[in-house]
Amino acid sequence: MNVAAEKPAIRVRHLWHRFGAYDVLRDVSFDVGHGEIFGFIGPNGAGKTTTIRVMSTLLEPMAGRVEVCGYDVSIDQDEVRRLIGYMPDHAGVYDRITVREYLEFFADAYGVSSGGKNYAVVEAVLELTDLDKLESKLVATMSKGMKQRLQLGRILLHDPKVLILDEPASDLDPRARIEMRDLLMELRSMGKTVFLSSHILTELADVCTSVAILERGKMVVSGPITEIAERLARAREGVHVGDAARTPSVVKRTLRLRVLATENVVRAALADAPFVTGVGPGPGGSLAVGFTGDDLAVADIVKRLVDAKVPVCGVEPERNELERIFLEVTKGDLQ
Ligand SMILES: Nc1ncnc2c1ncn2[C@@H]1O[C@H](COP(=O)(O)OP(=O)(O)O)[C@@H](O)[C@H]1O
Ligand SMILES: [Mg+2]
Questions:
Q1: What pTM value is reported for the model?
Q2: Mutate to test the pocket of ligand 1, among 12, 22, 50, 51 (most ligand atoms within 8 A of CB)
């Protein structure tokens, strides 16, 4: 029986952990499906690293059950370790060797190099991580982003199914972050599951297919982003499934509008728009249009602008979906 194919990539049930007298994790449960890029989001101290260390067999859970592809992290540690690639948050890399030497060393240590005779796996990882041009570079001279990439390369050597990355993008510059995002998407397209944590909501959120938000050791919400957004919208408005598209929402939102026209022209064009509450200057030369409603209201605003011959170049929500979810689900607990 192929256990790995049937069970979720990661399954966490009623996980508790305590340091001293302090409950760091309180009844945390969630599932990560195969092939997902799953964002584990929460402020510093929320308990992300503690959860990740349990998943990675480095910390025994005090109560609850955690499985990777059906294997229990407390019982089947060897299987779990073979299945996962774990990248800790602040791991150092050996400095005084080259990129290739570093990867060959770990290929030997992991027993994937046929006793040091065959480094095909290192070639594959160098190519995948785009480190092949830097293979002779001393690790000490690499940028933070490149070191991070090298670490990711290291944990790919044994071809793990599930990658568990603790804050992989923290401290990276924007370019390195974009490159990390592209690499994660490539790994996903190779069939891997990626679980990553972040205390910065927007850091890698746009690559995540699902998220879990953790606050003070408690799971606030988890699931696919679109599903959470729909669930929240329905709960907020008391709207039944299926009615959502027809019932105007009462939620206040803001659009960022980029037009080849002045604020006054836009204000005039939207003067009679029933959902619009105001027009003002927005960031970066855009205009901010306040409105109450859902996507129907957005469509109405765009139609009115087009009818009034206002050249529209861009229409964006002020916040992305995940930011809205985060503000909504966490506001009750943050005082
Ligand atoms: N080894 C430890 N001993 C005592 N307290 C710890 C230990 N590790 C973490 N903590 C505490 O547990 C809480 C959660 O920490 P952590 O899991 O690292 O959170 P996060 O990764 O979300 O920032 C924090 O309050 C932290 O101080
Ligand atoms: Mg942490």
A1: 0.80
A2: 50
Residue with CA nearest ligand 1 atom 18: 49
Range of the domain at 296: 248-330
**What CATH number does residue 254 fall under?**
3.30.70.100
**pLDDT, tens digit, for every residue of 20-65?**
999 999 999 999 999 999 999 998 999 999 999 999 999 999 999 9
The answer to whether residues 223 and 259 belong to one domain is no
User: Hey, whose CA ends up nearest to atom 16 of ligand 1?
Assistant: 47
Ligand 1, atom 24: closest residue by C-alpha = 45
Ligand 2 center to residue 42 CA distance, Å?
A: 9
Contact residues of ligand 1, CB 6 A cut-off: 19, 24, 42, 44-50
* Among 159, 204, 160, 211, residue whose Cα is nearest residue 185: 204
Q: Tell how strand 10-19 and strand 22-32 pair up.
A: antiparallel
